[in-house]
Design brief:
Length: about 300
């Protein structure tokens, strides 16, 4: 792929599509949405409104860090507070697809309101090839693939969708981001699922569980970042395990560590993490998060497993 020609082509296509209208960008701070936003900003300038929906399911300090990073790139971001709506939508749901459906509908409902406020006609989002392939193949429905589940955003939410990256895989998106001048901290960033930490909690999603897996995720990313895995994260299991505290038995949570190597997310192999690092991870997680009593490392490839748990 000729990256410069790809950028030129997409910028012109976005200009042609939007015309004199306004567009709104669904920025999450991940690689895909960041690259899509920067492409759209290059094409549209002040015609583009950039929004970050704070649904309460992101990594630590994510909204503030994303806003600061893009401010340094000359792009202002409006943070939309919507935590209560998302937790209410996820309340009581344990089935993976039901949770994804609840997140997806709430996400676009909130965006629909913002579109009406901004009078935008188009939504720019960072759908990539792997999202489409996995949804069409029935592996799992990605939150940003609406036509596969019978949602017409123009009729239901009042906008048309622009997906400038839909033909690219992750490694190609990173190349585009680098050429656009994105900081390495973004274009080298590990993938993060659209439904965020909701996909890393087995069972019902609650604010308490999110905070627990958020802390574990920070530890995993800190300790494994020197290995530069494609993706590394923590998963909170639904079952409880037996542990010890001050010589007494107690029940606590179980964290699974997942780290994989991949190029395009279509296949993946577990990261060969040194034993001393694994034991350090277990020690840090159980000491810094007393509610966790057991930590395990998962070694399943994709396939037969997916990278994310749900």
């Amino acid at each position: 792929m000729d990256v410069k020609k790809f950028i030129e082509r997409q910028v012109e296509e976005i200009k042609k599509t939007v015309g004199a209208n306004k567009a709104i960008s669904a920025l999450s701070g991940g690689v895909d949405s960041s690259v899509a936003t920067l492409l759209a900003h290059r094409a549209l300038g002040s015609q583009l409104k950039v929004i970050f929906i704070d649904h309460g399911l992101m990594r630590e300090n994510e909204p503030q860090e994303v806003k600061g990073t893009f401010a340094r790139l000359g792009i202002n971001i409006d943070i939309v507070e919507a935590k209560n709506e998302f937790f209410e939508a996820l309340k009581g749901k344990t089935d993976p697809e039901e949770k994804r459906k609840a997140f997806r509908y709430t996400f676009y409902k909130v965006f629909g309101r913002e579109v009406l406020k901004s009078k935008a006609h188009y939504l720019v989002q960072g759908t990539i090839a792997a999202d489409i392939i996995e949804t069409q193949g029935g592996i799992k429905t990605q939150h940003n693939i609406l036509e596969q589940i019978g949602i017409d955003p123009e009729k239901g939410f009042g906008f048309k969708i622009i997906e400038p990256l839909k033909e690219l895989f992750k490694h190609e998106v990173r190349r585009v981001g680098k050429e656009l001048g994105l900081p390495e901290v973004i274009f080298r960033r590990m993938p993060f699922p659209g439904p965020a930490l909701a996909t890393r909690i087995i069972g019902e999603v609650t604010p308490e569980k999110v905070e627990l897996v958020r802390k574990a995720t920070r530890i995993v990313e800190e300790e494994l970042s020197p290995l530069q895995p494609f993706q590394a994260f923590a998963v909170l299991m639904n079952d409880m395990g037996t542990g010890l505290a001050e010589g007494k038995r107690k029940f606590g949570h179980i964290i699974i560590i997942r780290s994989v190597e991949s190029q395009d997310a279509m296949t993946a192999q577990p990261t060969p993490v040194p034993w001393d690092l694994l034991t350090k991870l277990a020690r840090r997680i159980t000491e810094e998060i007393p509610a966790v009593v057991r930590v395990a490392y998962e070694i399943t490839s994709k396939p037969p497993a997916t990278i994310e748990y749900i």
